[in-house]
Known about the structure:
The structure is a homodimer of 281-residue chains. Chain A has 281 residues and is an alpha/beta fold. Chain A has a single domain (2-277), classed as Alpha-Beta Barrel (TIM Barrel), CATH 3.20.20.70. The first copy, chain A, has helices at residues 2-10, 28-31, 37-52, 63-67, 70-86, 101-114, 132-141, 159-162, 169-180, 199-208, 226-230, 246-249, 252-255, 259-277, and strands at residues 15-19, 58-62, 91-97, 119-122, 146-152, 190-194, 214-216, 240-244. Chain A has an 8-stranded parallel beta barrel with strand order 1-2-3-4-5-6-7-8, surrounded by 8 helices. The N and C termini of chain A lie close together (12 Å). The relative contact order of chain A is 0.16. Chains A and B meet through α4, α5, β3, α6 and α8 of A and α4, α5, α6, α8 and α9 of B.
Amino acid sequence: MQILVDSARRRQSVLVAGLDPIPDRLPPAVLEAGLSEVRATEAFCRGILVAIEPYVAAVKLQAAYFERLGPAGMQVYAELIEQADALGLPVIADVKRGDIGPVAAAYAEAHLAVYGAACVTVNPYMGNDAVLPFLEQTRLLNRGGGVFSLVATSNPSAGELQNLGEPPLYEAAARLVRDAGGGDGEYPDAGAVVGVTHPKVGRRVRELLPDALFLAPGYGAQGGGAEGVRSLLDARGAGVLVNSSRGILYAHEDSGLDYREAARQAARSAREELRGIGARM
Amino acid sequence: MQILVDSARRRQSVLVAGLDPIPDRLPPAVLEAGLSEVRATEAFCRGILVAIEPYVAAVKLQAAYFERLGPAGMQVYAELIEQADALGLPVIADVKRGDIGPVAAAYAEAHLAVYGAACVTVNPYMGNDAVLPFLEQTRLLNRGGGVFSLVATSNPSAGELQNLGEPPLYEAAARLVRDAGGGDGEYPDAGAVVGVTHPKVGRRVRELLPDALFLAPGYGAQGGGAEGVRSLLDARGAGVLVNSSRGILYAHEDSGLDYREAARQAARSAREELRGIGARM
Lengths: 281, 281
């Protein structure tokens, strides 16, 4: 995780910008240029990367939106990871893969080695078999990357499974993260995805994982706010990277500005907001 | 799910062949032809598809092995789905995606509409938000496809999360499948992935889902046998498709036969074994 920590400190930002290029929300300037959907997605994402680079610790690429564009979409995914690298922005591949053993190893190789993301998100439903192969790959590559395992997510139906049991399932998922983590960075290489939308759950997960790095979705567009972020901070007021996707990407929809300028302003103010809350790295 | 049921009856087979082209297990005849890894994978899978076609209800493509070959690998994945279609073999895209809302919808569009698989596997850790968009896509396409949601998997660490709680988590996952299913086929369009490796768990899941179609991994190479399969059968002795991957694909390693002939024989005998157990459609 050190690559994320170093980038966050360099830019004084705990903000992660999520690249979710939703097809029917691409800005008019891009849609009207007569490009194919693949090329329009590429142009949009490239514009966003350059615009937000000074204000974000990392970018999170949502693989689904590239996957739905077929093999050409995966080529764009590859090139955006390259571009982010060239800008000094670490990439979190938001793939949430959840398979086991050699299959998990193949996914890990795909996203971390072939496509070259620094970090990846994974789904722990199948247990440790689904998480360890990703950690092995990051350790092999030794670039300061890491693996964020879903623990307590921010979506409306998250609790249907995650809150079941006593203690609830998310506690077991947190323990799996604790036991899996290693490496020689300031944070263990196994981190957790914990939404900012349920502060009580967030505080409990932080108790169980006092030393882990969290990737926190749900800020802004999904309704999470300052209290949700604070609930996740570690004893030093650090340890949390906060993701915002739609609030940055589609800021032009409200402002009428060029999408790049709107995204830049949105990223800058989200960074300041998070500093105001006291979140730092 | 009707497309799977019809194919199983036509071929008198409840066997699903899993296409897991593990790079260092490709047969010598393919490896020595001097092809690139992408082309070798393609040649191997194409050979297998033709060889096993008469004996299997469907093929299950393990997306990870194509993903690790980059965009060119996804092109092969697309072409194999086309070839299977041309052979009248329904494809289950084993993607185990587990994301929510518009992201899940993008994955569903990718694998069911763009790549054109009939069925897909999904991961329910995030709750219904992660399952329903896939069902919506299959209903929209209306080709008799369906969605297999992970319930109780066959891997060694499966129980780390799935067995927690009282009642255990896998029961909640089964209820999610029950509540999500619909459509006008003989089986609901929401099915379950239930391993053959834990018969007691299998019987319980069958109690909760008396009418659902199960996709059952763990047969053969993973140690599951006749008792495991029987535990999953519905009241009519039907309702289960049994997956075998390595036992078919890599049959040449033990037999010394051409890989196609070895796979064909392995598929034929697995089909007969399953008929012997009393599993039918």
